[in-house]
Every structure is written in C-alpha cells, then in structure tokens.
Amino acid sequence: MAAKAKVVLTDYVWDSLDIEEKTLAGLAELVPLQTKKPEEFIVAAADCDALLNTYAGPITADVMAKMPKCKIIARYGIGVDTIDLDAATQAGIIVTNNPTYCIEEVAEHTMALLLASARKTAFYDRLVRAGRWEVPPGKPMFRLAGSTLGLVGFGNIAREVAVRAAAFGMRVLYSDPFIHEGQFKAPGKKMELREMLQESDFVSLHPPLTPQTRKMIDDEAFSQMKPTAVLINCARGPVVDTDALVRALDAKKIAGCALDTIDPEPLPDPHPLRGRENVIINPHAAWYSEQAMKGLQAGAPNEVRRVLSGEWPVNVVNRAVKGKNRAGI
Predict the structure, then answer these.
(1) Which of 64, 128, 287, 327 would suit a FRET pair with 219, their CA atoms being 20 to 30 Å apart?
(2) What are φ and ψ of residue 263, in 5° steps?
(3) Which tens digit of pLDDT belongs to each residue from 108-154?
(4) Helices (H), 99-173
(5) pLDDT tens, residue by residue, 275-318
(6) What is the sign, positive or negative, of the torsion defined by CA atoms of 262, 265, 267, 268?
(7) What is the DSSP letter of 174?
(8) Would you put residue 85 in left (φ > 0), alpha (ψ -120 to 50) or beta?
(9) By the 8 A CB rule, do 249 and 223 touch?
(10) Measured distance CA(225)–CA(199) in Å, rounded
(11) Which of 68, 60, 67, 66 minimizes the C-alpha distance to 84?
C-alpha cells in the first residue's frame, strides 16, 4: 500500500476540521497548525505534499525551496497576494484559490455599508444609545436614488454590487482596464478612473491586491473625489493609502468612508480613523455567512484532493505551471 500523502494546514479560523478530514480521508494525513509566519510552519511542512493556507505568510521563493515535495498550495480565500506566484510557477507548485464562495456576501456587505453611510444609520444608533433623539445632527443626507456609484474593478463581486445598486435606482460607473464595456450583462458604464472618481457620490473598491493596485487610492485619487463622496472598501485594505485617507478626512476632501478591510489589520487602538462619526469600520467580516463558511472550508481541501489524485484542479491561479508541475499533471 502506498504511503499517505502529508497535507499541512498552516492556520484556520473555524471550529471543526471534519470537512478537511472527510475530504482527504484515505488519501492524506492532515497536520493542522495555528501559525502566522512561515518560520512557524516550515518545520512541519518541509516534507509536505500539499499546503492548505488561510492567512499565514508570506509564502516566498525561500519558503517554497524548503518544501521540495510540495505539489500544491491551496488558499482557502480569494486573494493570493501573500504567495509569490512567479516563484511557485518556477518551482512547479500549483497555486489555487477559492474565488466564488462569498460573492453574494461581499456584495451584500458592500451595499450594507453604502446604505449605512447614505442614511447614517450607524451614526443615529450611536446617538440614540447616548440618550439623544434628534435628526439634525445627521444632516446633510441625500437621496440614494439618482446618485452615482463608481466601482473600482468590475469582477464577480463588483458586478453583483452593480445589480443591487441599480435596483436602488443608482447610476453605476466602473473603471477596470481588463474589462470592456458590454462584456457582461451587469449594469454599468465604463470610464477612466480619474473621470469616474470625479463623478461618483460613492466609490466602492473591488480590485485584487497587486503591486499596481497597492495604495492606488492615494492623495491624488482623493483630490479627484467630490467633497460629498463616500469611500467603501470591502476588497483589500492596502488598496487604500491609509495615511492619505486620514489626510483626506481631515481636509474634508471626502465626506466619509466605510471600511470592512483596512491597512493594517487589525486597526491599532488608538488610531486616527477610530472615533470619527463619518467613519464606519468593520473587522473584515464581509465574506462571512454560514453558507459561505461551508464553501470556504470545502474549496481548498477539494483542490488538494484533485492534485493528489492526479487531476487538474478547478481554480488554478498560476496557469503557466500546467505541464511542468511537480504533480506531473
């Protein structure tokens, strides 16, 4: 009988590993860890056949060199910005992600933050909790219908946001260099980023985190936005230059922001963004629902099972590795 493969799980944020155990049963031994940095998992992973990864990283070329048998690094989530994809391809390691498990959840959360900002529900809740029953402190407020939403990026989540925003009577614009107008049925007019920022009442961020998008919302971007505009981020925190955001709020270049993701996470206490009435901050919760959790937990182990069984996985990020990977598939 062939020896079982070894699968190392770097970290996880759920209570049970029943799904992983069931998915890999008979094929691999699961070694679950709770680590944050490569030096904390590399000893266990040195002889692994596969690596399951949630947040621990970064996984660099040096880390991969210390895992000579590793055939696949399977991310539980969507983003792969903590994994050196070029290095993985060079090393023959397949990298997968889980791009569809929380599309609806993040789109819904984006709209929740947009509505909370527009109607100032969080502000009024705090006001009432403090013993005050007054409308004037929330002024001014503007009707959502007829306002303009600008989407930075027009991927799966952004397009779902566009559908929801249009249902509220909003005009939808988007900026995405990789998508041409009319490519998808979702509502939206394509614009260059600068023009879109100038016209938008709400700017919602949905690009992946890459070297090109890191801190793309900077002092210059804020200077192009309306002083009545609100920034919403349910993508990745480092897409926004946090210091520039603080400066923009201080100078009243924008009216406020609603952030599910921020740089750094968790946000230190104290921090200049904390305690502002025109700022909503959530703890990176947009992805979560009970349904999404099931999809999250099942995705990566199934990709590992496919590779260890000699099958090509479904959601490969570094497609150039096909035909020259360690798994021989």
Answers:
(1) 287
(2) -125, 115
(3) 999 999 999 999 999 999 999 999 999 999 999 999 999 999 999 99
(4) 103-119, 121-129, 156-167
(5) 999 999 999 999 999 999 999 999 999 999 999 999 999 999 99
(6) negative
(7) E
(8) alpha
(9) no
(10) 8
(11) 60
Instruction: Give the E-state strand segments of 86-222 in sequence order.
Output: 94-96, 148-152, 171-175, 189-190, 202-205
CA distance 204 to 148: 11
Q: How confident is the model at residue 22 (pLDDT cuts 50, 70, 90)?
A: very high
Closest CA to 33 of 67, 69, 7, 65: 7
By percentage, how much of the chain surpasses pLDDT 70? 99
- Evaluate whether 287 touches 13 at the Cβ level (below 8 Å): no
83 burial level (CB within 10 Å; 0-12, 13-18, 19+): buried
- Annotated catalytic residue 265: yes
Q: Tens digits of per-residue pLDDT, 87-102?
A: 999 999 999 999 999 9
Catalytic residue, chosen from 104, 108, 199, 265, is: 265
> Quick check: is 206 catalytic?
no
For CA atoms 67, 70, 76, 80, the dihedral sign is positive
User: Which one is catalytic: 119, 247, 271, 284?
Assistant: 284
In the three-class reduction of DSSP (H, G, I as helix; E, B as strand; rest coil), residue 104 is classed as helix
For residue 284, indicate whether it is catalytic.
yes
> Of 75, 109, 171, 236, which residue is the catalytic one?
236
Beta strands in 178-255 (DSSP E): 189-190, 202-205, 230-233
In the structure, what pLDDT confidence band is assigned to residue 2 with cuts at 50, 70 and 90? low
Average pLDDT over residues 319-325: 95
* Per-residue burial over 238-258, b = 16 or more CB atoms within 10 Å of its CB, e = otherwise: bbbbbebbeebbeeebbbbbb
281 within 8 A of 117, measured Cβ to Cβ: no
